[in-house]
Every structure is written in C-alpha cells, then in structure tokens.
Amino acid sequence: MEKAYRHLPYFFLLAIPITLAAFYPTYLVQFPNFSERNDGFTHVHGIISVVWLAMLIAQPFLIRNKKYELHRKVGRLSYVVFPLLILSFIPQIVKSSHYNFVTIFFPIADSVVMIVLYSLAIYNRNDSSKHMRYMIGMTLVFLFPTLGRIEPIWLGIVDTIGQDINYGIIYMILIGLSFYDRSHQKDFKPYLVSIPFFAMHQLVFHLLF
C-alpha cells in the first residue's frame, strides 16, 4: 500500500457505525418481527450489502498487512458478489415504483455510478494506484443510502437539502484527495474521472425532485 494511504483501512471502518446508525431505526430495530415492506428481497439485499461492505473494509487491511494473495482472492470473489449486489436492487426498484415512481432514481442512479467506477477499477486491476482510487470513488456511493437516512431521521434535515449535503461531502473528499495526491506527486486522475459521474447523479436528482 502507498505510504500516503497507510491509514486508509481505518477510515473504511467508519462505514460500520454509519451503517448501523442509518439502518437501525427503519430496519434493524424491527428484528425479528419485520414489517411487510421489509420482505425477503429486502433481507437478501441487506445480506449481500453486508458481505460487500465487509469485503470493502477487508481489502485495504489485507494490502496494509501484505496479504496480497488473499487480497486477490477476495477481489476475484467480487466478480460474483458485485453482480449479485446490483441484481438485489431490482426488487427494490420494482417495489418502490408502486409507492412513488420517482424513488426508483436512487437505486438506479447509485447502481450506474457503482457499475462504472467498479468496472474502471477492475479494468485497471494491474495498476494498483488507479485500481485503489477508483474503488475509493465507488465506495463513496455508499454515502447516499446511509447519510440519506441519517440526516432526516437523526438530524431532521429535509431530503433535498440532505442530498445536496451528501453531494458536497463527496465532492470535498474527491477534490481533497486530488490535491493530496498532487502534492505527493501521485496519479489523482481517477478522482477527477469520478467527479462527473456524481455530478450527473446530482443533476438528474434535481431534475426529478
């Protein structure tokens, strides 16, 4: 792992408390008597998402501890888990269309950004510098379903304002990392490539909402 990113694995650990805070009020608190809206498809999506999140957290730790072969094995496992994750959004999209057709934007838009950045990461899998940065960009999509729940539930921030806050956080992270890499003479272009996809995500969001 690049020396400048040696503490990256610990930032990925923040995903655990963020996820718990986001999904506890509307999902985890219902265990084991879930509402009808949280059906079997929701549980499958949740399980696959947890597996995917665990893989994202584990990968930088494996690199940090020089477990390169295990890192590659987990990476190859993602070829199965990632498509399953995307497919698990389909029942959610169908179900959301019955409540409010516009709400299907979120799973569709999130999936598109994830697919593009994950594909770029895999395409550059032999270039560890670009691979890592595209994976970081893809991981930022995780902020939409998590902060998007934390803000209205825990902070009382209305959806539109909350979403713009989320976009702002993502832009600050990507721009901040770009300047950080530039100051260390590293390849920051993957972060710049990621920004337009989040910008299109935001543009479509405001067109619909």
Can you put this structure into words, describing what you see?
By secondary structure, this protein is mainly α. Helices cover 76% and strands 0% of the residues. The chain is built from 10 helices and no strands. The protein has helices spanning 8-12, 15-23, 40-64, 68-87, 89-99, 105-123, 128-139, 143-155, 159-183, 189-208. Helix 2 crosses helix 8. The radius of gyration is 17 Å and the shape is globular. The mean pLDDT is 91.
The strand count comes to 0
> Would you identify the regions where 5 or more consecutive residues have pLDDT less than 50?
none
The major sheet is characterized as: none
User: In whole angstroms, how far apart are the ends?
Assistant: 41 Å
Compute the gyration radius: what is it?
17 Å
The percent range for strand residues is: under 5%
Quick recap:
With 209 residues, the protein is mostly helical.
Entry keywords:
mainly alpha; 76% helix; 0% strand
List the helices and strands and how they pair.
Elements: H1 8-12, H2 15-23, H3 40-64, H4 68-87, H5 89-99, H6 105-123, H7 128-139, H8 143-155, H9 159-183, H10 189-208
